[in-house]
Design goal:
It is an enzyme of class 2 (transferase). This protein is of the alpha+beta class. The protein contains 12 helices and 5 strands. Among the domains are: 126 residues, no CATH class; 130 residues, Heat Shock Protein 90 (2-Layer Sandwich). The longest helix is centred in the middle third of the chain and has 92 residues. The N terminus is likely disordered.
Length: 442
């Protein structure tokens, strides 16, 4: 079955190898024109045989062969015109000459070849018409004047040559224009598809970046607040019976921190819900161009808007105070004059200090901690260092996913900064970050 299919394919290819017509309708048209031209030339061959003293069947056969050449007009239009010029002295092939000139002018042949063959056809028709008309006038009973024969010859030769050439040039130019417009439309459609795909990728990248940013924010909020709440809850349990006043104070702190954590979580969840509404609206079927424009607009908006307003360096003092209330000994040192930064720089600096303090609560409970912030000429630096824990390797028993340091590094690297963390020689741990100082225009 496969072999027969292969034979059929090869037979089809071999059958198409000599067929130069793109469509069956074109083949039928050319064959029909060839038959009409062959019949015309055969009829004209009878007169040619009589004038040349040749047998009539020979003249008819010559006309049939010459006229059938018109079938090749799409493959070899120049050859068809040459044949029509060659049989012009025999007063044959008027249809072949007209159709051949039209096909040649409409083809992709060089203009100099079209002009040369059209000139040959014009001269041949002019000579034959001049001779024939002069013979007719000479056998007539009246004298039309010396201008009649040249005028008729010029008009007839131009009338048989110029219209098919001009019409063929027009059709060829129009065909090339349509092909150019079609190719341009296909190219534009491909470019539009590529732009839509690229815009969708950018939008997807922007959505991924936004989800990552929100995940980091939620990690920082939950880890820090809940860590402080656990520390205060442990202190509350320890002093509940011994010092009721301190227990009440710790309970109040736990409540305040829980409310702050819930407030920040609600804000972030509100952003997520708004994003879900946008995604739901975008899921409706829209044209490809609209998808590309909407995706590009979403990506551009996400890139321009940047992170939402959040904590800043001015909030470091309350942050350190919360750790002090949890029983940590923290010293805050600020060098240089504070100045306004971009919101993402302010927020990243705050989150680095916050996450570093959270790690101290988790893994070095009771250790003395130093928070240093330096405003320099071209950058802002922050460092959080803690000494050895009073309980050695023990920690507060808080769970850790190992994403704190990774998140801090991602935040700092995204702004072109430098992040370094590691243990100190004294047995503690140090977290350092340097952010490029880009002063806001406000």
């Amino acid at each position: 079955m496969t072999t027969s299919g292969a034979h059929q394919d090869s037979a089809g290819d071999s059958a198409r190898s000599w067929l130069w017509w793109g469509r069956r309708r074109s083949a039928v048209l050319d064959v029909g024109l060839g038959l009409v031209s062959a019949v015309e030339c055969a009829l004209e061959g009878v007169r040619f045989a009589g004038n040349a003293a040749l047998p009539v069947p020979l003249g008819v056969l010559f006309g049939l062969i010459a006229g059938s050449v018109l079938v090749l007009r799409r493959r070899w239009p120049a050859s068809v015109v040459l044949v029509s010029v060659a049989i012009t002295p025999a007063e044959m092939g008027f249809l072949m000459g007209i159709v051949g000139l039209y096909t040649l002018a409409a083809s992709e042949a060089p203009r100099r070849i079209i002009a040369a063959l059209a000139g040959m056809s014009l001269v041949g028709t002019l000579i034959v018409t001049f001779v024939r008309t002069r013979q007719d006038v000479g056998s007539a009973d009246f004298d039309p004047g010396p201008w009649y024969v040249p005028l008729v010859s010029v008009v007839m030769s131009i009338g048989l040559t110029a219209p098919p050439v001009l019409f063929g040039l027009y059709v060829g130019a129009r065909r090339r224009l349509m092909e150019s417009l079609r190719e341009r439309a296909v190219s534009l459609e491909q470019e539009l598809s590529l732009l839509a795909d690229r815009a969708e990728q950018q939008a997807q990248w922007a959505r991924t970046e936004e989800r990552t940013r929100i995940a980091r924010e939620m990690h920082d909020v939950v880890a820090h607040r809940v860590s402080l709440m656990v520390v205060h809850a442990a202190a509350l349990q320890a002093v509940a019976l011994k010092d009721p006043q301190k227990a009440v104070k710790n309970a109040a702190l736990v409540g305040d921190m829980g409310r702050q954590a819930l407030t920040e979580l609600r804000e972030m969840l509100g952003v997520l819900r708004a994003g879900e509404d946008v995604v739901t609206r975008a899921a409706e079927p829209v044209p490809l161009a609209a998808v590309g424009v909407a995706a590009a607009a979403a990506a551009a908006a996400a890139a321009e808007d940047g992170p939402a307003e959040g904590p800043s360096l001015a909030d470091l003092e309350p942050l350190v105070e919360q750790s002090r209330q949890a029983g940590m000994v923290v010293e805050l040192m600020v060098q240089g004059d504070a100045r306004p930064y971009r919101p993402e720089v302010e927020q990243t600096a705050y989150r680095v200090v916050q996450e570093a303090l959270t790690n101290v609560h988790k893994h070095a409970a009771g250790a003395k901690t130093w928070v240093r912030v330096a405003h320099r000429g071209a950058e802002v630096a922050m460092q959080v260092e803690n000494g050895p824990s009073e309980r050695g390797a023990a920690d507060a028993g808080l769970p850790s996913g190992g994403n704190g340091l990774v998140g801090m590094r991602e935040r700092v690297s995204a702004l072109g900064g430098v992040f370094v963390s590691g243990p100190t020689d004294a047995g503690g741990f140090r977290v350092s970050a340097v952010l490029p100082m880009e002063v806001s225009s406000a």
